[in-house]
Amino acid sequence: MEHADIISGAYTYTKEAFFALKQLPRWIVLFLYVALPILVCLAISSLILQMAVLPVLVNVFVNDNYGFTAASLSGLLQYFAVILSLCCVFFVPLIQGYCYRIAKSDSSEMPDHTNLWGLFFSGWRINFVILYYAIPIIVISLIYAMIFYYLFPEAGFYTTIDVLALESLFTVLITLSYVAVEFITIILVSLFAFVGLVHLTRSGSLAEATHIRGIADIIKKIGWYDYILSLVIMSILFLLVTFILILLAQIFAYNGVAIVILIGVYLFVMIPIMVFFIRYLSEVYDTAFRVPEEDDVDFDDF
């Protein structure tokens, strides 16, 4: 596999799709596919939580027994509203639907970004595959949570732990083992999930996208080394952009407006990066089905 050629092809595809003034409207529309569900859900959930839920919580928890204040409860509810709003990207999967179209298309031009219902239903096909591959991660998390609370029934979300105590060291070991197993599971699941998502767009079948043996055969055709190297290349670019955002967030940690702007800029910048990832992964997937070029030179005369 010629990684340089694939990267170059994905870069050219992304550059022609976004980095021109006439392509700016498409970039804005795709950004709105991500931002609008978040903003609408944030507005609705904030209104409901602050107007309906906060008075109830104030009556229950604002007293000497709990030590909460109305302001602290309001802040906690607002954080909860932010989490709910971010989940709306999953429940209103317009951007996932467009990723479906990119991976499905073999054209050198970006696919159409209209027909919202089509994007919505295609996005949910992507979501079903994501949920399927997330099952091992969820199961491991639940198993470790049950083990932890079985061994330490007195532990809670806000338990303080003396790391010098033997019991605390045991707790740390359990936590580290959980992190290690979870990390390895995420890596292994991701190897199959990425190819499964592209295979979904090409085959149109949820069953084939979740058929582990079939996905493993495709990865074998690509080459495990080449495939893992491709994921490493994508991860480096994603982590680089995310690191820059985190660094800027630390600088403006106490400025709420600046944080909101940074998140918006991050989402805006991630649109072409996401398109690059999808195109790059699609071309890596295509290498599994390319017929090797035969050398027709006859060496009998040498």
UniProtKB/TrEMBL annotation:
It comes from the Archaea. The chain crosses the membrane at residues 30-57, 77-100, 130-152, 172-198, 227-252, 258-281. Coiled coil: none annotated. Pfam families: DUF4013. InterPro entries: DUF4013. Keywords: Membrane, Transmembrane, Transmembrane helix. This is Glycerophosphoryl diester phosphodiesterase membrane domain-containing protein. It comes from Methanocorpusculum labreanum (strain ATCC 43576 / DSM 4855 / Z).
